[in-house]
Amino acid sequence: MDVSVMAQEGGRSPHNGQQALFPRALTPFERATLLWLLPEDKPGYNEYRKYISMWKVVGEGRRGSGNYILAEPSTIADAESPLPQVLAYGMIEADRADISVTLRELLENQLEFEIVNVKGETIPEHFTEKRRWNFSLWTPKQPCPICCRPPREVTIRREIGSDATLAVCVSDRRLWICDARDGVNHLIPVTNFHNALMLYKNIRDPERALAADNFFKDLHMFSDPDLTAAFVHYNKLRKKVDLGTVLFPKTKITLLERVASLFRK
Ligand SMILES: [Zn+2]
Fold first, then answer.
1. Most buried of 111, 144, 164, 255, CB within 10 angstroms?
2. Is 67 within 8 Å of 113 (Cβ atoms)?
């Protein structure tokens, strides 16, 4: 169909003339940026690289400009289904823009991504990059990708072997879980994780239980087995990784805890 006819016909729709823009190829900047989020040496990310090479942008996502859906060119973009979880996230810091890059997990043969300037309405045509970071490249024992300080790490051991590592950066108020099986780092929203921790610790005082912000302040008060148990509980409700049975580390119980446990019985 002639493009001008299509624009006229769509005159009354909110997507006036938009059909003519899709499908389109990724711009070189979009393509390079998305591939940067998907390191080749990590299988969980590597398997996504083929979509970046093969597919086209078939429509806008629900957030509008900068948020797009990548799929086979004949696909009609579905922006109605619930948003899939974030697979990869990073930031390009420049003189005139901070560009956040988000790629979500594959859902029914389409991939949603967002490349936006968090400092302004649009991405300037020319900018000088200062630095860039993402969570995809992180592996255990490395510093936090944002602040370069060591995060707190808790190794979660699967019965069938291979670990998952829970990492918490107090200064950036971020937590994520790294799955050793595919190398993917899944970001975890603090509120739901904090709820799971409060339930596990049986903390009901609303001042503590409802204030997820306290999680980072109080992190030192929770042991590795506490954080492991909280993650296992959280992961049952909002699955990030396949854990199977988890081996809990044996902990030394202090005399005080032993006395306290006698009173709880
Ligand atoms: Zn950090």
1. 164
2. yes
